[in-house]
Design brief:
Keywords: Methyltransferase, Transferase. The protein is α+β, with helices and mostly antiparallel strands and 142 residues long. The chain is built from three helices and four strands.
């Protein structure tokens, strides 16, 4: 029999757990919620710092967000964090792309290339501004 424990804590301080306790972390909206606070940048910094601390080397942080790379990559690439980031962009349900456009030719299961700065390439056309962005962040060895 598997027992589950319901824990409630602040994602910015999870000192209850030891360093490198997890193989993966899934975030569906937590960072987005923090980005709505009055101290958004500092809260995001603390959260990403905690996620980085808790992940084992090679661990995965999956961030599912409405934040495009211009507003999320700076938080992910903060000092002390070393990620290999792969981005997927999923259009909202019911969105129909224009036939022959760059996004209609790309499978949603195909990663979207990022520039050295972690931005969308200039030639990439984002047709649906309400897309979901899925960042697969692999924690690299120190």
């Amino acid at each position: 029999m598997v027992l589950f424990v319901d824990l409630q804590m602040d994602v910015r301080d999870m000192s209850f757990f030891e360093d490198e306790s997890f193989d993966s972390v899934i975030d569906k909206g937590t960072l987005d919620s923090l980005m709505c606070s009055t101290d958004a940048s500092f809260s995001a910094f603390l959260m990403i710092e905690e996620v980085n601390r808790l992940l084992k080397p090679g661990g995965i942080y999956m961030l599912i967000t409405y934040g495009d790379p211009s507003v999320r990559i700076p938080h992910l690439n903060q000092p002390g964090c070393c990620w290999k980031i792969t981005l997927y962009i999923i259009p909202r349900a019911g969105f129909e792309s224009v036939v022959g456009s760059s996004s209609s030719l790309r499978s949603v299961m195909e990663p979207v290339p990022l520039t050295e700065e972690g931005l969308l390439a200039p030639e990439y056309v984002l047709e649906d501004p309400d897309s979901h962005y899925i960042y697969i962040c692999k924690k690299m060895e120190d």
